[in-house]
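Example (one chain per record):
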Amino acid sequence: MQTNIFSRQPPSFRSFIIAVITCLVVLFFDWRMPHVVQPARNLLYTLYNPIYTVASYPVMSREWLSQQTKSEDQLRRENTAMQAELLQAQVRLQKLSELSAENTRLRGLLDTPLIIDGRMEIAEVIGTDTDPLKHIIVINRGTADHLRQGQVVLDDKGIMGQIIDVYPHNARVLLLSDKESSLSVRIERTGMRAIVSGSGDLGHLKMQYVPTSADLVVGDNIYSSGLGEHFPAGYLVGRVSKIQRQNSGEFAQIEITPAAQLAGGHYVVVLFSDSLAKEQPYAHR
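Predicted structure:
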């Protein structure tokens, strides 16, 4: 009788038992003595690496061929898309930087030692006066927020100006640099009083009617004196930046650099306190 070469004999039960026992022994050694089995495992992994590499060749070859067969138009479209994504990311980064800077400025306003007793209102600069010769800014607070004419406006560095007009939802602030602006000040180092006026330049103020013999040096801090009760006492106005003493003149020409950011401030503080000349009687002495 001819033997069927395709017939399969059932595996021997003895071989199955031996295989199971061998597996259990290997598992036991791997559990109890992993340092014995680990070298063999490392050797097997090393032998498998060429197989993994050969098996990955079809996929890598297909990707390489697809990259090589891309048309010039496809490459240009991809380049344009990547440039657009890069531009969007740069714009988002600029916005995040601006938000971080605004957060820092707001923290500076809230933490500034210039604010007393918490009587303040934070406002945002929303515009400037249409007259280029006027140094007037517009803030987004008005009578609806209980603002009134004559209130002092400052930032975290010093005095910016004073409210001159109030409307329901906005107000106009005359900056210290305007030619029509002036206030009484006190030199911190000597206590001498003087008048500081606007020069028409956002970066410079001028101190008027100071004798050439006055004890004044570059770098002196200038504070509001409270005289006249238009500006409260004790707030930084600026620093002396230039002194010109002429032998023929009776008064010196003195330039003051304003402490506040008159040209670039975005958020400001409106004071609600009464004039510090009333709160500090020594300001009149």
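Caption: The CA atoms of residues 197 and 208 lie 7 Å apart.
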